[in-house]
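Write out this protein's structure.
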Amino acid sequence: MKSLLNSPTRNLLGGVLFVLTVGSLAVVGYVSQGWSFGDALYMVVLTIFTVGYDEVQPIATGPLRAITMGLIVTGCTGMIFVTGALVQFITLSGIQQILDHKHMTRQIEHLRNHVIVCGFGRIGAMVARELKAGGAQFVILERSAERIEEARELGYLCLHADASDETVLQQAGVEHARALATVLPDDAVNVFITLSARSLNKSMMIIARGEVPSTVSKLRYAGANEVVLPAHIGGERVAEIILYPAAAKAMQHGNRTHVMEKELHSLGLELELVVAEQGSVFAGRTVDEIEREVGPAFFIVGIDRHSGEMIGRPDGSTRIEPADGVVILGRANRAEALRGFQAGAD
């Protein structure tokens, strides 16, 4: 809808509508003078496009000459306007795309300590959403023109390119990135991207998606720090590993943690890490205020600050800040209560 409101498009549509209106009126005028519809339409097209063939019927009467002169003046002028508007539309659209690409490229060149997301499918879109909520800078690499347009509409930095190309990874600033998530639905491509990224940045965290369990060892051998299987872990968890590695590691690893999770699950309880998004209901409120509002739905047992500070067993006066990771303990099926951590929640 926004594109329909810009000047070149408005001029082009207005010009076409004017020419169609003039042509329709001229056809009606010729038909009223006894011409057939076919002859009238043919005469209008010849005149508007200034082809210059002979008249299909003699223009012998005053009304016919008046219709023809009016058609020549208004129709030809309208076509000149439409041609100019079409040239303007094509030229400005191309220039705008070039300027937008250059602006985005400059922004990416200045990124430091950012995240690279390879793939903007279902998992990639979830990762990007959580990274944005956590206040992280990131750039998306995607081959699909349709998906890259979706990413641009959401305001994400992105490159329409193949992430398996080392040159593309360099354009995305892989040497200066702190993490890379390759979440394409192709294990072989994810392995290749992992290998390329690890060769370009030895210290960067790499999280790779695997479709089948047998790929896990290959991805780790290629250099992935973490491997996630969509059947067991979602896009939000990929982002949480990047944004809050301390809390995510504490929740994921160790026999003691797994035993505790099983015991909690037997009681109908779950341990989860969520992001307090900017503009959400719970962002800026204290632990006591949040727990009073949600009642028995969940309790806050830890806070992983965006700055890197990990707070275990926070007291009631501790305030949740935007982009904090919040470790909660609560009952299953508590989706409505968790909506308070999402931007725009009521």
